[in-house]
Each structure stands twice: as structure tokens, then as C-alpha cells.
């Protein structure tokens, strides 16, 4: 039956879904195939139009809306099985999803159940009759891997930072701007093994690390938990959040949710202030998205100093309190 | 409880990766190796669960013969047994890795006549980052699996487990029946350091070695590249406390104070 299928997240991931749809559109165009979307589970109340509009706005002719009582709340196994069944039913050439946590989990489940390979975190993709050529992110972004994917159905997730390719010539896509919704109901055995959500809670408010305009981060050079007090003060004065390196987390100076890096959070502030952090690659990949980086370090040759836009060479315990004091002094003056 | 933890040998370097001349891999000649932070937390959690409920922890890896080092490290932290599936020096694709892990787990379960109550993975491997090996193993064995987990609450008597994970908007808690699988993230716990006694035990522990035939999957690595990054000329604002006015000038320029 062919076509290119994009798994979209109308509730949580409109932006990342749009990137995946843009990829799908170009791939479908290049192959001369139709672009379709798939959404699993109920859409939010009053958002019935959002699905066809999101998909159609990116050139999809149709949206498979996959519904079943077992899909009414999220379950990795049920959602993955539903997608695997939809793939068997529609036989697309390729299935694409955004590389969000949920998108990746559902794709991995579907690929495992359909016994298909899966390439995650792709940056570029080019179809080929023999094997598809792609590039994907490794090591949290320090490396790019060029790879080949050989499969009956090509499955891949598109990295958040991937730039959609230019339009690849004439496409067989919809121009009406709204896609036709087609319902699909998968079947589940009564003995189907799965986990289910039993509780949900919302985040506590406050400045969040991943959305803060300023992040004041500390590492080994801060020296201990108390050493973070001036950093907290500077974060408060700049409306920012406090981050840290893995050394700070491992020593119990900060909770892990403050950790920036490959196994922590990726941050994209206007300004990242790195205090007593050497700039190991695993930390760097978490903060390299910052517009400006100010490194405060006793070592002028530390990797973070040489990679930063700005640096102060010196002891954190002297520099940061002096900065805080200078902010107070200027505030008193005005 | 019988717990299986799957770990992968990966380079530990914090420096910029050096590639081999043909660009097909990383030049590992001068590197030391480790297991990733997520997997360290998986080992720690497994050891804590067994300390609490009794049972045993087995660690399993697919990799080169040298990956024995990572198994011994896990044993020094409190794991009981190690299984090495020898797969040679080249990276194994995720389908083949999952196949080899699944076979080894099936063997272990057949030998003891009972499933592992919990099979644990890292959320993603630090080097390849396929985000899928755990899911493939769990599916092949017919076990439920939740990823990104930062909290585990097991009730062995009731035969159920709860997994908590962070979401973009907050947190969600899943429930599954045992036997189950889980892929965990750093932050689940604060891993311990190896004790002297643990190190001695690890040195003496016997490692089971397997060499199955493993069919290749559909994803093939061709080469690695270092992405281009612009290196700005670093503006040094000054030295020590005397740099404070220049720093605040910058903060004002960026309109954050
Ligand atoms: C798979 C893997 C994943 C990882 N994930 C992460 C991650 O997500 N995040 C992360 O951060 N790390 C991560 N790491 C660890 C990483 O490799 C480094 O070990 C870690 O980032 C180093 O932290 P640090 O810079 O605080 O400490 P160090 O590397 O010890 O650096 C301390 C720095 O402070 C400076 N300094 C010392 N005293 C002072 C002072 N008084 N004033 C000013 N400067 C001073 C020193 O010059 C030095 O540059 C990971 C490692 C691996 C293997
Ligand atoms: N070669 C391997 N040996 C043992 N476990 C592995 C191996 N590769 C991956 N895993 C496990 O699967 C998890 C996810 O890996 P990946 O799918 O590569 O991101 C890892 O954190 C490990 O727990």
C-alpha cells in the first residue's frame, strides 16, 4: 500500500511533530508517495480539529486515529502494539516519529513487535532503493554517525534539533490543508502484557532549568554544597536557575535534577555561567546550546574556558560573591 | 528477588573523541572504559533491592572479552554473578545485541526454572544511544517495560512493581506485574563506590562466557564524524574579584539584571 507515516503527538509535542512531518513530507515527495499521519489515543477535549489541521497543514492527506479502550491512557506496550498493527495494516514504506521520550518509546515498542530495525535521533535521511542512508546523533551530540538502514519498513525518529530538508520536487501531498481522519482499531488479546499509568502529578512551579534564560552552574571547583549559596543568589538576581556538573551530583552537593549534560538536562539559556566546571564533553553537550557562555575557572586552559564566549580566570568563591555585590551596588546607585 | 542487569562497556573519556584514521570508530587505544551513569544506577538499585528482599543480582554484557572488567566492577558493587556474551571488538547493532541478551536470559531462566523478577537496563547507552535494546529484550520475553524511570517501588509478595518517571509536565507512575523489565535514568539513586571487600570478591568471581551465533540486524554503522562547531574567540573579562564590574556589564548588556 506504500506511503510515509508520521506518528504525531497532538497534545504534548506539536513542535517536534511538525519537524517529523516536514521530514516525512520531503521523503514522501521524493518517493512519490502519499504522506499520512497517525495519532494514538484520545485527543484533548475540544481539540478534535487540531489533529487534521496539524497533519494537513504539513501536507498529510490522511490521519489514522488509533483508538481502543486500552489506549485511553498512555501505556508503552499498548501504544507500541497498536502502532505495529497499524503498520502491518497499512504497509507504509517508512514510519517516522519525533525523538521525544514518548515517541521514541512507542517506536521502539512497535519496531520490536514488528521485528524491524529502528534508527533513533536522525539528523538527515535519504531514501535509496537498496539501503536508506542516514545520519544520527551519538553520545548526546558529540558525534554524528553515518549509517545504512535496510528494512522492509524503514523506522526512524527525528532528533529535536534536526533541520528539515528542502522540498524535494513534486509531491503527491495534500494541498487542502486539512487531512481526512480515518479511524483504526487495533486488537488486543485478553492476556496482553502491559504496564499502565496509575498516577500523574504536575511539576512544582519555579524557574525550570530547561527554560531558564540564565543558568548558573557549579562543578567540583565550587567545593561543596555551601559553595552553591552565592550561585543561588546570582541565579535569583538574574531570574535564572541553578545547574551543576555530575561531580556535584555524585558528591551529593545538588540533586540530580540540577545536572546539566549527557545524562542530565540539555539547556538553551541566553547565558550559561559555568563555575568551576572543566567542560568534559559529557557536560559540554548539555550546555553547548547556550547563546553565551561565561566560564569562571582558575585554569585558563580548561576546555570550558577555551570554548566559552566569555571567561573570568579566578576562584569561584571570590568571583561570584563579588559579582553579586556589584549587582547590589549598582541597584543601590539607581 | 532475582534481578538481571544489562550493562555495556563504553569509553570513559571526558575529552573530545578521537576517531580512527578510517573514521569507522573511536580510537580506544588510550582510553579507559566504564559503564554509563544510567547503568550504574541500575546496578545500585538491584543491589539495594536484594539487600532488602534477598535474592541475587546477575550482570550481563554483550561485548569484547575486555568487557569482563565492567562485569567485575558491578560485582565489586554487590552483584553476584557475571555473564559475558563475547561478540568481538566491533560494535553490535541493537537488534543483534537484544537477540544475544535475550538468548542469555532465556538460558539463565531455563537453568533455574524461574524468570528473573526484574530485568534492568539503562535508558540509553552513552555511546550509541539507540534507546531500544531494553524494549526489544522485554518484548521478546513478553515482559512489560517502562523507560526513563527514576523511582522503583517493588512489592514482591503482591507480585507487582511501580515505576516513577519525569515527564515534560511533571511525573507519572506506572504499575506492572512481575516479572517485569525497566530502563532507568541517572538520579534513581546515588551509586556507592566499590568497597575493599567488594573488590576482592570481584577479582575472584567466576564469569560465565557465552559465544552464540548472532544474526545481524538492519542498522549498519558506516562512519563517525565530529560535528562542526564554531569556536568563538573567548573574551577574558578579567581575573578574580576585580572582574566583577565587567561581568555585570555583560549581564546588563544581555538584559538579565
Ligand atoms: C557516560 C558518561 C556520562 C556523563 N554525563 C555527564 C553529565 O550529564 N553531566 C556532567 O556534568 N558530567 C557527566 N559526566 C562526567 C564528566 O565526564 C566529567 O567527569 C564531569 O563533567 C566533571 O565535572 P566537573 O567539571 O565539575 O569536575 P572536574 O572535571 O574535576 O573540573 C573541575 C574544574 O574546576 C576548576 N576549579 C577547581 N577549583 C576551582 C576554584 N576554586 N575556582 C574556580 N575553578 C576551580 C578546575 O580548574 C577544573 O576545571 C559523564 C561521564 C560519562 C562517562
Ligand atoms: N552490548 C550491550 N550489552 C549489555 N547491555 C546492553 C548492550 N547494549 C545496550 N545494552 C543495554 O540496553 C540499554 C539501552 O541501550 P541502547 O538501546 O543502545 O540505547 C543500555 O543502557 C544497556 O542497559
Give a written overview of the molecule.
Chain A has 334 residues and is an alpha/beta fold. Chain A is built from 9 helices and 15 strands. Chain A has helices spanning 14-31, 50-57, 76-90, 101-114, 229-237, 246-250, 281-287, 303-307, 316-333; strands at residues 4-7, 35-40, 62-66, 94-98, 119-126, 132-138, 143-149, 154-158, 180-184, 196-202, 214-218, 241-244, 271-275, 292-297, 310-313. In chain A, the strands form 2 sheets. Chain A has a 9-stranded mixed sheet, sandwiched between helices. With 257 residues, chain B is an alpha/beta fold. Chain B is built from 6 helices and 13 strands. Chain B starts with a strand and ends with a helix. In chain B, strand 7 and strand 8 (160-167) form a beta hairpin. In chain B, the strands form 2 sheets. In chain B, strands 9-8-7-10-6-1-4-5-11 form a 9-stranded mixed sheet, sandwiched between helices. Chain B has one domain: HUPs (Rossmann fold, 3-Layer(aba) Sandwich), CATH 3.40.50. At the A-B interface, helix 3, helix 4, strand 5, strand 6 and strand 7 of A face helix 3, helix 4, strand 7, strand 8 and strand 9 of B. Strand 10 (196-202) of chain A pairs antiparallel with strand 9 of chain B, so a sheet runs across the interface. Bound molecules: flavin-adenine dinucleotide (FAD) and adenosine monophosphate (AMP).
Features:
A: 334 residues; Rossmann fold; 2 domains; 9-stranded mixed beta sheet; 9 helices; 30% helix; elongated; B: alpha/beta; two-stranded antiparallel ribbon; globular; binds flavin-adenine dinucleotide
**Helical/strand content category of chain B:** alpha/beta
Fraction of residues in H or I helices of chain B: 25-40%
Q: Major β-sheet of chain A, in short? A: 9 strands, mixed
How large is the share of residues in beta strands of chain A?
15-25%
Question: Helical proportion of chain A?
Answer: 25-40%
Uncertain spans of chain B:
none
CATH superfamily of the largest domain in chain A: HUPs
* Assigned CATH class of chain B: Alpha Beta
Strand order of the largest sheet of chain B: 9-8-7-10-6-1-4-5-11
Bound molecules: flavin-adenine dinucleotide, adenosine monophosphate
Distance between the termini of chain B: 54 Å
- Please, how many domains of chain B? 1
* Main interface by residue count: A-B, 98 and 85 residues
SSE string of chain B, helices as H and strands as E: EEEHEHEHEHEEEEHEEEH
Q: Give the overall average pLDDT of chain A.
A: 93
Helix/strand structural class of chain A = alpha/beta
Number of self-contained structural domains of chain A: 2
What is the number of beta strands of chain A? 15
The gyration radius over C-alpha positions of chain A equals: 23 Å
Query: Largest beta sheet of chain A: what is the strand line-up?
Result: 7-6-5-8-4-1-2-3-9
- Major sheet characteristics of chain B: 9 strands, mixed
Amino acid at each position: 500500500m506504500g506511503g510515509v507515516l508520521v506518528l504525531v503527538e497532538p497534545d504534548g509535542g506539536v513542535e517536534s511533530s511538525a519537524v517529523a512531518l516536514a521530514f516525512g513530507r520531503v521523503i514522501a515527495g521524493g518517493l512519490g508517495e502519499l504522506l499520512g499521519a497517525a495519532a494514538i489515543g484520545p485527543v484533548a477535549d475540544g481539540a478534535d480539529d487540531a489533529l487534521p489541521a496539524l497533519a494537513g497543514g504539513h501536507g498529510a492527506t490522511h490521519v489514522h486515529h488509533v483508538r481502543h479502550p486500552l489506549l485511553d491512557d498512555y501505556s508503552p506496550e499498548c501504544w507500541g502494539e497498536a502502532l505495529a498493527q497499524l503498520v502491518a495494516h497499512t504497509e507504509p514504506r517508512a514510519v517516522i516519529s519525533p525523538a521525544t521520550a514518548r515517541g521514541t518509546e512507542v517506536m521502539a515498542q512497535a519496531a520490536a513487535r514488528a521485528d524491524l530495525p529502528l534508527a533513533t535521533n536522525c539528523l538527515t535521511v535519504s531514501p535509496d532503493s537498496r539501503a536508506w542512508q542516514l545520519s544520527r546523533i551519538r553520545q548526546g551530540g558529540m558525534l554524528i554517525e553515518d549509517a545504512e538502514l535496510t528494512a522492509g519498513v524503514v523506522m526512524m525518529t527525528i532528533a529535536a534539533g534536526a533541520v528539515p530538508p528542502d522540498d524535494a520536487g513534486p509531491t503527491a501531498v495534500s494541498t487542502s490543508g486539512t487531512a481526512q481522519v480515518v479511524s483504526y482499531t487495533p486488537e488486543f488479546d485478553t492476556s496482553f502484557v502491559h504496564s499502565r499509568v496509575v498516577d500523574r502529578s504536575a511539576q512544582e512551579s519555579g524557574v525550570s532549568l530547561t527554560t531558564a534564560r540564565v543558568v548558573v552552574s557549579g562543578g567540583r571547583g565550587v567545593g561543596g554544597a555551601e559553595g552553591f549559596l552565592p550561585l543561588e543568589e546570582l541565579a535569583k538576581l538574574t531570574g535564572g536557575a541553578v545547574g551543576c556538573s555530575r561531580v556535584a551530583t555524585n558528591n551529593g552537593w545538588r540533586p540530580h535534577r540540577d545536572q546539566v549534560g549527557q545524562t542530565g538536562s540539555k539547556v538553551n539559556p541566553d547565558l550559561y555561567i559555568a563555575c568551576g566546571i572543566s567542560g568534559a564533553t559529557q557536560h559540554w553537550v548539555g550546555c553547548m546550546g547556550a547563546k553565551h557562555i561565561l566560564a569562571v575557572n582558575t585554569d585558563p586552559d580548561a576546555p570550558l574556558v577555551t570554548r566559552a564566549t566569555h571567561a573570568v580566570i579566578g576562584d569561584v568563591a571570590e568571583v561570584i560573591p563579588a559579582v553579586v555585590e556589584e549587582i547590589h551596588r549598582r541597584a543601590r546607585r539607581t | 528477588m532475582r534481578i538481571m542487569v544489562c550493562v555495556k562497556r563504553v569509553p570513559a573519556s571526558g575529552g573530545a573523541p578521537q576517531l580512527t584514521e578510517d573514521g569507522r570508530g573511536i580510537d580506544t587505544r588510550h582510553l579507559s572504559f566504564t559503564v554509563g551513569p544510567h547503568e550504574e544506577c541500575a546496578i545500585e538499585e538491584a543491589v539495594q533491592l536484594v539487600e532488602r528482599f534477598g535474592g541475587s543480582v546477575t550482570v550481563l554484557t554483550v561485548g569484547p572479552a575486555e568487557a569482563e572488567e565492567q562485569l567485575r566492577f558491578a560485582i565489586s558493587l554487590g552483584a553476584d554473578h557475571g555473564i559475558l556474551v563475547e561478540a568481538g571488538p566491533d560494535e553490535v547493532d541493537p537488534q543483534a545485541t537484544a537477540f544475544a541478551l535475550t538468548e542469555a536470559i532465556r538460558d539463565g531462566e531455563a537453568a533455574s526454572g524461574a524468570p528473573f523478577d526484574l530485568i534492568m537496563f539503562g535508558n540509553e547507552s552513552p555511546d550509541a544511544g539507540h534507546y531500544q535494546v531494553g524494549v526489544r529484550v522485554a518484548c521478546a520475553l513478553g515482559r512489560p517495560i517502562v523507560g526513563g524511570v527514576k523511582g522503583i517501588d517493588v512489592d514482591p509478595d503482591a507480585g507487582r512493581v511501580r515505576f516513577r518517571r519525569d515527564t515534560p509536565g511533571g511525573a507519572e507512575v506506572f504499575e506492572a506485574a512481575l516479572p517485569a523489565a525497566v530502563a532507568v535514568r541517572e538520579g534513581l539513586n546515588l551509586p556507592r563506590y566499590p568497597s575493599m571487600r567488594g573488590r576482592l570478591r570481584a577479582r575472584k568471581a567466576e564469569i560465565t562466557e557465552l559465544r552464540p551465533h548472532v544474526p545481524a540486524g538492519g542498522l549498519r554503522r558506516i562512519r563517525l564524524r565530529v560535528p562542526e562547531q564554531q569556536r568563538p574567540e573567548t573574551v577574558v573579562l578579567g581575573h578574580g574579584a576585580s572582574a566583577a564590574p565587567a561581568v555585570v556589564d555583560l549581564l546588563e548588556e544581555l538584559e538579565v539584571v
